[in-house]
Amino acid sequence: MSSELLAPLDLAFWHLESSDHPMHLGALAHFGPPPRGDEHGELRVPDLPGLPGLPGLLGLLARRAEAIPRLRMRVRDVLLPVGGAVWATDKDFDVRRHVREIALPGADFPAEAAGLAGELMERPVERGLPPWEMYLLTGAPDGSFAVLVKLHHALADGMRAVAIGAGIFDEIAAVTRRPGHHCARPVPPRSWLPGPGRLVGAARDRIGDLGRAVEVGASVVRASRLDPRATAALAAHSSGTRRVATAVLDLERIHRVRRLSGGTANDVLLAVVAGALRRWLDGRGEPLSGADPRALVPVSRRRPGSPAGSGNSFSAYLLTLPVTEPDPAARLTAVRRAMDRNKADGPLRGAGALTVLADQLPPLAHRFGAPLASGAARLLFDVLVTNVPLPRSALSLGGAPLRALYPMAPLARGQSLAVAMSPYGGQVHVGLVADGKAVPDLDALAAAFADELDLLDEFGGGR
């Protein structure tokens, strides 16, 4: 049985989870109707012969998922290192435990799919099995359908989740379907009585790790707030419920604002988030005179071509969202300048360095310290805002074109909202995950995204 040690950050995510705070990522992918086949009644999909339309899609989805080596791995505790765990191939793996079909009424399929996604995102994945689930959602009158994917955060960060989940698409499956395609790293043999050379090397490594941990830890402490003053809507006590909403932004308009204002497309998106929050809070009648909320903006530390078996690898920037600024152009300018400062300082400063700190801690610290530290996120930031890139090429499943993919991020303890965005097909798809009781009006926030982009475009991006 092949196995691979959980990296420290993966182990932290594994132990951070509780029943009210599941630690899985998600994605809700919408597809157009599958083609009805050629004149002979066959789809031109290699592993779906002779099955036109929706029939057979569940089997196709299961076969594609089963062929992804990473999705056959489960977490197993080990004796060494103390407190550690490994990814081990599940010898009893049964894909039918992970891939299911749910038929929706179909009167308003997109809204029904988002509503069900919220319910399914509430439930932690089963920890004794490979920690992921997929749901085929059917029932749309036009034959379109959706797929909801849940991957535990210990299994992958946002970019790695895309790399793993992309295996279900026709275009990716066609080039990766070959024997022996497995990138997991085996666990090196460990002796209970290491030799002197190994002891000296381990001691030297730990001293170096301790120095880095002290440096990063100091940055995290400096960024922490002893008196977090986030609006109640973003810092309510957890109810354990989840609500999902989606929004769509025109990518060309975002680039038009960027060209006029400078900076990056991500700066424009972060300004849209700030403006949407302002518009939403104002509509709720909540005062805007308090401190601006702080966002944690993840930044990948993954190198191009890194193996699929590698786990989480990211840091983050800390950004004050200028929600109290009434001028949309000034909001964008503030975001752009703050992100420029973040990039100049690098990823080892601020609250985002907490993920780097996790990489320097021994497994036992994560096993016992994660539950105690789970509430610390509120001292560091108020909302997670992440941008998850997708492949630029057109994607399909069973010949059905991918229309939209809405990423979904987990909620930290003490927080009520997470914002994830993915550009694809000339649009940016926004996935909002919120505590269901704290944010019952999540659809109003979703609608505010398009309104805010209209406003930024009207103001010429802050010229």
Q: Write down the CATH topology of the largest domain.
A: Chloramphenicol Acetyltransferase
Distance between the termini: 60 Å
- Report the helical percentage: 25-40%
> What is the structural class?
alpha+beta
Oligomeric state as shown: single chain
**What is the number of helices?**
13
Biggest β-sheet: strands ordered side by side in the sheet: 5-6-7-2-13-12
* C-alpha geometry: globular
User: Quick one: CATH superfamily of the largest domain?
Assistant: Nonribosomal peptide synthetase, condensation domain
Instruction: Output the radius of gyration.
Output: 23 Å
CATH class call of the largest domain: Alpha Beta
CATH architecture of the largest domain: 2-Layer Sandwich
Kindly describe this structure.
- The chain has two domains: 3-176, Chloramphenicol Acetyltransferase (2-Layer Sandwich); 203-458, 2-Layer Sandwich (Chloramphenicol Acetyltransferase), CATH 3.30.559.30.
- The chain is 35% helix and 21% strand.
- The chain has helices spanning 8-16, 57-66, 109-122, 158-165, 170-176, 196-223, 251-261, 265-284, 328-345, 354-358, 363-373, 377-380, 442-458; strands at 3-5, 24-31, 73-77, 85-89, 99-103, 132-138, 145-152, 242-250, 294-300, 314-320, 383-387, 396-397, 400-408, 417-424, 427-435.
- α1 runs parallel beside α11, α7 crosses α8 and α8 (265-284) crosses α9.
- It is globular and about 60 Å long.
- The model is unreliable at 38-44, 180-217 and 304-309 (pLDDT under 50).
